[in-house]
Amino acid sequence: MSSASPPSVNLGPITTNNLFYSKYIIIYILELWLGAIPVVFWGYICYLNLVYFWWSWFLIPLFALELYWMYIIIVSWVAKILLVIVCKIYPPREGVFKINETKDYFYWNLRTFIRSLPFTLIRYSAFPWLDFLVYNFLSGSKFNKCGMSSVMYDGWLDTEFIETGNNCMIGLGSIVLSHYIDGDLFILKKVKLNDGAIVGAKAIVMPGTVIGKHTTLGAASLTEIDQQLEDYSIYMGMPAKKLKKP
What gap in Å lies between CA 148 and CA 166, rounded to an integer? Predict the structure, then answer.
């Protein structure tokens, strides 16, 4: 892989929830700052309650949880507004692009970085279902469609061009990629998991993959780019091959 790839490749899988790109640090600071201002103000009000009302000391856990939720909500809204603006300037699109000849890779990095702070805040929270809610809030659009009954927070997912049906399960440590970097080529293609699809632990789903209804991709398996997995089937291996059709 060439030096054009994000710096996160040296740290682990290339996913858009662990990307860090120094040229966009001003966006990170903006989200931190705008999120902190109302939280600090409200925290001061909570502090005054502790000073003047002795019984409010019993509410300290609720105050802390309230401030935590408030910060996540505000940062997510700031990120959402920035994403709307960026998508208006240059809408996301699928395809295979030359990194140095088109703007798609640049704007993909920008959109990814805008989402990075909210995803970081929820990734290590005590509420795993927050991951799914914030993911849908920041990524749910005509480019994404995720069923509410799916289990997603144990895996690593890209944040664009991912569609899941109902009752899908993304296994522990699995990776679902809608993007791929091959030399100077940047590939961005939609991944679709139909109803009841299961991605096994530590499996990797490549861009353009379509997993059929109630189809299982086995643990530690790897799909190919644009691979179509048939309905009601089991796939295993690297690359994934159909093993069984009930």
Answer: 7
Per-residue pLDDT at 238: 92
Domain count within the chain = 1
Q: Is residue 172 part of a domain?
A: yes
Per-residue pLDDT at 237 exceeds 90:
yes
Report the alpha-carbon distance of residue 135 to residue 118 in Å, rounded: 9
Which domain range does residue 197 map to?
7-244
Strand partners, 192: 163, 210
CB 83 within 8 A of CB 115: yes
pLDDT in tens, 147-183: 667 777 678 888 889 888 888 988 888 999 999 998 8
Contact between 112 and 68 (Cβ < 8 Å)? no
CATH number of the domain enclosing 190: 2.160.10.10
Domain for residue 1, yes or no? no
Alpha helices in 53-161 (DSSP H): 60-89, 104-123, 129-139
Query: Is position 49 within any domain?
Result: yes
